[in-house]
């Protein structure tokens, strides 16, 4: 273990990774989303895509232990279940694509997906009505592919929920529950394929400490009366992370 920890401290950009995951924890705690949108573009500067996916999903499971108990009672579990089952089927497709595409291409996909998601949210795009089960399955399936390929487990579902008419507390709970389910699915697939290196596991454990702490802080700050503040704060942090992680800049 001491050797593994020494290897973690020698990880390129470890300070930036720790600061970024801490900021992501704050945003995740008070909005229910945003970790991957913040962490993945920055982590992609220092780590290979497969390591990024392993770290973000393993640390995601850690934060879920802080957020899931309260979200469980507020979420629409049937709706989230349809999304999660569809993602379960398509995550292996994303992981397979990860082995076929080079690092630069994956980083560009991360940037494009994040920019499209952020632009759609900031523009105020909304839809009314209730999504059908096939529609939910399509959204969940797309989220599974993108999650397996890039580690961005939430954009499709985040956009779906934040563009809808549901109350912010419900949006937050549904998003937390879905992201928890997808993290477990991706980790299970990685373990099945024996794709999680010991160094990745130790790095995830180290980063999970600041992430867990800041997630609790963010959750304590959450107040449905300040929905607009939460959303714009999250948008700003995500924008900074996306810009800093653009492949053309580093």
Radius of gyration: 17 Å
What percent strand?
A: under 5%
Mean pLDDT: 81
Q: How would you describe the shape?
A: globular
Main beta-sheet strand count, sense and barrel state: none
SS field, number of helical segments: 11
| Counted beta strands | 0
Query: Uncertain spans, ≥5 residues at pLDDT below 50?
Result: none
Secondary structure: helix percent: over 70%
Q: What distance lies between the first and last C-alpha atoms, to the nearest angstrom?
A: 32 Å
Main structural class: mainly alpha
**Number of discrete domains:** 1
- Order of SSEs, N→C? HHHHHHHHHHH
Structure notes:
With 250 residues, the chain is an all-alpha fold. The protein has one domain (2-249). The protein is built from 11 helices and no strands. It has helices at residues 2-9, 14-31, 35-46, 49-74, 77-98, 103-122, 133-150, 155-162, 168-192, 198-221, 227-244. The longest helix is centred in the first third of the chain and has 26 residues, at 49-74.
Compact overview of the structure:
This protein is an all-alpha fold and 250 residues long. 80% of the residues lie in helices and 0% in strands.
Blueprint of the fold:
Blueprint: H1 2-9, H2 14-31, H3 35-46, H4 49-74, H5 77-98, H6 103-122, H7 133-150, H8 155-162, H9 168-192, H10 198-221, H11 227-244
Helix pairs in contact: 1-10, 2-3, 2-10, 2-11, 3-4, 3-6, 3-11, 4-7, 4-9, 4-10, 5-7, 5-9, 6-8, 6-11, 7-8, 8-9
Organism: Roseovarius litoreus
Transmembrane segments: 6-27, 39-68, 80-98, 105-125, 137-163, 175-192, 198-217, 229-249
GO cellular component, one term: plasma membrane
């Amino acid at each position: 273990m001491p050797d593994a920890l020494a290897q973690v401290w020698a990880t390129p950009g470890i300070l930036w990774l720790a600061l970024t995951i801490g900021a992501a924890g704050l945003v995740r705690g008070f909005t229910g989303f945003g970790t991957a949108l913040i962490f993945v573009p920055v982590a992609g500067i220092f780590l290979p895509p497969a390591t990024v996916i392993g770290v973000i999903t393993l640390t995601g499971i850690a934060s879920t232990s802080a957020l899931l108990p309260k979200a469980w009672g507020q979420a629409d579990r049937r709706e989230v279940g349809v999304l999660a089952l569809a993602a379960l089927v398509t995550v292996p497709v994303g992981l397979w694509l990860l082995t076929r595409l080079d690092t630069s291409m994956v980083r560009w996909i991360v940037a494009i997906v994040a920019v499209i998601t952020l632009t759609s949210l900031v523009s105020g795009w909304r839809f009314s009505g209730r999504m059908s089960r096939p529609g939910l399955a399509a959204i969940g399936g797309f989220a599974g592919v993108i999650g397996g390929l890039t580690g961005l487990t939430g954009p499709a579902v985040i956009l779906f929920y934040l563009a809808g008419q549901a109350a912010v507390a419900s949006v937050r709970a549904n998003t937390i529950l879905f992201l928890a389910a997808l993290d477990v699915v991706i980790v299970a697939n990685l373990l099945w394929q024996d794709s999680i290196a010991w160094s990745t596991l130790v790095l995830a454990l180290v980063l999970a400490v600041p992430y867990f702490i800041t997630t609790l802080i963010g959750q304590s700050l959450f107040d449905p009366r300040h929905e607009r503040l939460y959303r714009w704060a999250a948008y700003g942090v995500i924008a900074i992370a996306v810009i800093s992680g653009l492949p053309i800049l580093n």
